[in-house]
Amino acid sequence: MRRQFYRLIRDLHLYLGLFSSPFVLVFAISVFFLVHTWLPKLTPEVSHTRVVSVLPFPGDLLTLSGRPLIDALRPALEKVDVHGEVGFVRYLVKEEKLIIPVTVPGREMIVTINLTNREATIVTREAGLAAAMATLHRSPGEHAPAIRMNWFYMQAWRWLADTTAYLILFISVSGVYLWYVLRAERRVGFVLLFAGGLSFFGLAYALSH
């Protein structure tokens, strides 16, 4: 029974680790571009502007706020071929304009809608692969929970990010178990665990004082 349990944990440790490795790589590599701004971008940034007229708006648009407002603006955004995660909606009262930033990993779009003539100006910036990974790294989490995760693919990414966190937790615990079962590796393992724990708690103590 014990041997069967060991084999089960070993196989799960291996295959779940392989499944989660692409997501871990995205988070790991993107850290370098988030922390070290001097790193060269993987692809050059390109931007362009276009204007689209005759947009559909509901009659009660300006009475809405939060997620209902974003949902009401979706038909207009789809008409101008803008898809992605809406960051916020800013209403400029005097100019009668709406400013809507929309993000797709690797692409940022600023949609300025003129409510008077129902015209939209879209400024698109192609940010490249490095920016895409940084966007994916920052996106999961409760940032402006009332409106965020309003794009299906970003919701799916959050689910995968949560799953990856749980898998890493399982891989860590199962790795400790597999190491402990292998008696020949216990001494080296204790040294590495002690060194890792000392480094972590030492750094945590230094940052909190």
The H/E string reads: HEHEEEEEHHH
Percentage of residues in DSSP E strands: 15-25%
Mean of residue pLDDT values: 85
The outline comes out as elongated
Q: Which ranges are low-confidence, i.e. pLDDT below 50, for 5 or more consecutive residues? A: none
Separate helix tally: 5
Helical percentage: 40-55%
The gyration radius over C-alpha positions equals 24 Å
**In whole angstroms, how far apart are the ends?**
49 Å
Largest sheet: 6 strands, antiparallel
- Oligomer description: single chain
Count of DSSP strands: 6
Structural class: alpha+beta
Compact overview of the structure:
The protein has a domain at 46-127. 53% of the residues lie in helices and 17% in strands.
